[in-house]
Amino acid sequence: MAGAAAGVSISISISISTAARSLLRRRRSYTSASTSRPPPFAFRSRSITPTPRPPPLPLQVPLSSLHSDTESQASVSKGQSEGSQIIFLGTGTSEGIPRVSCLTNPSKTCPVCSKATQPGNKNRRRNTSILIRHVTASATSNILVDAGKFFYHSALQWFPIYGLRRLDAVLITHSHADAIGGLDDLRDWTNNVQPHIPIYVAQRDFEVMQKTHYYLVDTSVVLPGAAVSELQFNIIKEEPFTVHNLKVTPLPVWHGPGYRSLGFRFGDVCYISDASEIPEETYELMYNCDLLVLDALRPDRSSTTHFGLPKALVEVRKIKPKRTLFTGMMHLMDHDKINEDLLKLKETEGLDIQLSYDGLCVPTSPDPPSSQFSSFEKLQLIT
C-alpha cells in the first residue's frame, strides 16, 4: 500500500512538473513573439471613455405563443417593446422555489426544487408579483403589484434586463409578508432614484403596516441620519381609482375564511394572486376579460387559502377569459409537465391556459383612463 501510494505521488508530481514546464515554454514563446496582440485578460489602457451599452431589449412572449417554451419564439423587436406590458417578477409561494428543506433532505430528492437550482429554469419562483409598464403617448409609468420578501432579488435580476428604474406606484393586494415584506427595500429607490413612492393599500392592510412597518408609516421615530423608505400611503376602497393615468379596478376576493384580499383589473387584464373564493359580485367586474392571471397553488387540491389547479380550472371556465396564466405555484407544480397537461385543454375545450414564470413579459392593451375614477384617500406623512 505504501509503495502504491508513493507511485501515485511520483506520478502526480511528474504530471504537475510537465504541465508547469509546458506553461513556461508557452509564456517564453509568447514574450519572444510579436507584441502586436496583447495576451488574454491583459489590461489595456485607453484614452477614451467607451460608449455604454444600451440595456437589452425586453424578452416579450406574445400570448399566442405561450404554449411553447422555446425562447426563440419570443418577440424582441423594438417596435413591440414600446407598448404596455406586464412583467412577472415572481410566480411562487411565500417560501419560494426551490425550498431549502428539499435541497437539504438526504433521504428524498424533490424533482421540481432540483430543477429550480438550474440557471434559467422556469421552476425557480419568487414571491408572487407583477410590474405593469403602462405606456401612453406622453409618458411611461412603472406600477408594481406587491413587494414581498424576495422583491430585492426579483428587482436585482429583472430590472436591469427590462431597463426598469423608477417605481411610480405600488399596489398592495393584502398584508401578508409575501406581499409587503419588501417595502423596506424600497429605500434604495427613494434614496437614490426618486424622492418618494406612492403606496395604494386598503385600510385593513394599512392598519397592519402601522404595526409591522411602523417606522415607514410614522417616520418621526427614525433617528436623524438614518435612511428608510419614503412612502406616501393612499387608502383605496373597493371601487375603481386611477394611478398615473391608468384605471385600476379592485377585485375583492377571499384569501381564506374571513380574510379579504384584492385582485386588480387594468384594461382587459384581471390579476388575482391570492384567493380561495371569489364573491359573486366580483365576477361581474371580470366580464369580457382578455387575460386572466389567477392563483393556482398545487396540482391536486385547494388549500384553505389558495386555489388548487382543479378549482382554478373551474374558475376559468366560469370567468371565460380569452387566455389564462396561472401564478403562485408551489414545488409540486412542475412547469413543463403541468403545461403539457394544460395544452390538452386547448385541444379538447379550447381553453388557452399555461403557467406563468418569473421574468415572463406579456404585451397588454389597457383601456383608456377615466378621470372620474379617483377613489382613494391620501394620507399625509406623519411627522
Automatic annotation (TrEMBL):
Q: Where is the composition biased (Polar residues)?
A: 71-81
- What region holds the Metallo-beta-lactamase domain? 126-329
Disordered: where is this region?
A: 29-81
- Specify the signal sequence span: none
Do you know which Gene3D superfamilies this protein is assigned to? Ribonuclease Z/Hydroxyacylglutathione hydrolase-like (3.60.15.10)
Q: What name does the UniProt record give this protein?
A: Metallo-hydrolase/oxidoreductase superfamily protein
The scientific name of the source species is Rhynchospora pubera
